[in-house]
Amino acid sequence: MIRITGGKVFDPANNLHGVIRDVCIQNGKIVDDLPSRGRTLDATGLVIFPGGVDAHTHVAGSSLNFARGLLPEHLRNAHPIIRDQICRAGWKSLTPTTFATGYVYAGMGWTTVNEAAVAALSARHTHEELRDTPMVDKTFCILMANNEILLDLLQAGEPERARHLLAWYIRATQAYGVKAVNPGGVVAWKAGRAGKDAQTLHQPVPGYHRVTPGHIVAALARFCDELHLPHPVHLHCNDLGAPGNVATTLETIRLLEGHRAHLAHLQFHAYGGSDWESFCSGSTRIAEVFNASPNLTADVGLVLFGPAVTISADSPWQHLLHQLTGKKWGNIDVENETGCGIVPYVYKEKNLVNAVQWAVGLELLLLIDDPWRIALTTDHPNGAPFWRYPEIIRLLMDRDFRQEQIARIPDPIRRRMILPDLDRVYTLSEIAIIQSAGPARILGLKQKGHLGRGADADLVLYEEEPDAQRMFAYPRYVLKGGEIVLEEGELRRSVDGQTTASRPQYDVGIEKELAPRFSRRYAMAWENYPIVSDQLPGLQIQDCG
After folding, report:
1. Do the beta carbons of residue 304 and residue 394 sit within 8 Å?
2. Which of 37, 77, 81, 479 could be bridged to 107 by S-S, CB 3.0 to 4.6 A?
3. CA distance 166 to 174
4. Strand spans (E) along 248-387
């Protein structure tokens, strides 16, 4: 039992915005009060937030292991968040080990992560890696927008069976949600058609004359709603990263009308211009339509200058990036389900495209009215590593610092963005929303992101100071499940996080069709594919009502 006294509590979900009050913890949960016995933690002068929730990151699975092998280079002069323990645990690259990943997240006060893209075929291995990632609770989304069995059923005009199939995949992989990456575009890539036609929403997918990317987007959004999944379809739109892709994003939003959807790394889908020479920000139009679409949520996927590694199931885009940059490239084609490409990258402030990308992410955060619907992410490690989140927070809270960074960009490039004209600054309450409360609500994790009765006792205590970047990089205390795991920058205790899976309902009759389909499509036998929950000790199940 712990009573935290004297701290300034920021708990936007319960309308607490800097209120000095006690926070009481018993058996790993927040409670209203405690008996007199138990430990008291004096938080006078400290700011108390719910533990951070990363709604979109890439921390486990086959793609991360591929990247670790492709990019053995170590970061030079990496600044450890928890002193030297992190480097000893394997934090020496942009894709750290599972152990270091959990420690670094906790070292900043982030206690829950959503692995945003897992090939269903590799889900078993992903579960193993997530179990090896300490200090944080986990969820993950499986990739379904290029699953050929699902597309077969859509082609046959049988959406009801396709919905049951989707539910079966979620349960067979013990996943939490559904990810859609470049719907239909990876199938086109595998068919040898990776050009612009493969990105068009209304052109049939090769081999499926009755199915277009637009049909896949709308169907998956509807299925996720009908299955009552806690998190809507997690959508990586078509035409990622391309000049003028704002038009594709707006058309996608139109197709989603009437259904929930989460737009992943929205920054990468908000570009104007008609080619690389005319590349410019398209954030104003995206923010305007997004603000008027309450069915949508998003994470920003912000770019920061410096080294990164792009890892995406969007294989055609990754190959194009390889061609544009000349950087080394790795490719994975997951049989009949998805793909993956990996390319190292360095974002440069003097580069037109990179500078506009940096600006667009900040513009979206400043233009979108409702912070509850936009989560702080870098699409780790695509836009920047997650341990640079404190730098983003300073850019949002400190206008002078932001203007200093803008001034470093050449004048001709600054004219391609609207960021210099934006004066908005974030408050601590708004940071608490985009870092904790909002992502938890977006993911449908009711026990996360708040400090109300019954919530998981995941908390972070910061020392309030003018330098927001330092404040959020070096918390004084971090508590996970009611246990003090970090104190004064030192790791006090290592705890295992839990993985949560969804359990949608489906017609078991669909299983009778799967064995022959698997024999035609997969090298793995159908009976070896599903993961039994008993094989995953500690797995938390969230039923879908």
Report:
1. no
2. 81
3. 12
4. 261-263, 271-272, 280-281, 296-299, 306-312, 330-334, 338-347, 374-375
Q: Which two structure tokens, joined as six digits, stand for 465? A: 């100071």
- Structure tokens given for 297: 């949520």
Give all domains of the chain, ordered by start, each with its CATH number.
Answer: 48-81+92-491 (3.20.20)
Residue 193, pLDDT score: 66
Of all helices (H) and strands (E), which one includes residue 484? strand 483-487
Question: Looking at this protein, which amino acid is placed at residue 464?
Answer: E
pTM across the whole model:
0.95
Closest CA to 110 of 165, 188, 57: 57
Contact call for residues 174 and 221 (beta carbons, < 8 A)? no
Q: What is the pLDDT of residues 468-509, one digit of tens each?
A: 999 999 999 999 999 999 998 788 999 999 999 999 999 999
Give 117-145 as a 3 state SS string. EECHHHHHHHHHHHHCCECCEEEEEEECC
Helices 246-255/213-226 angle, 10° precision:
40
Instruction: Give me the count of residues in the chain.
Output: 545
The answer to whether the peptide bond before residue 381 is cis (omega within 30 degrees of 0) is yes
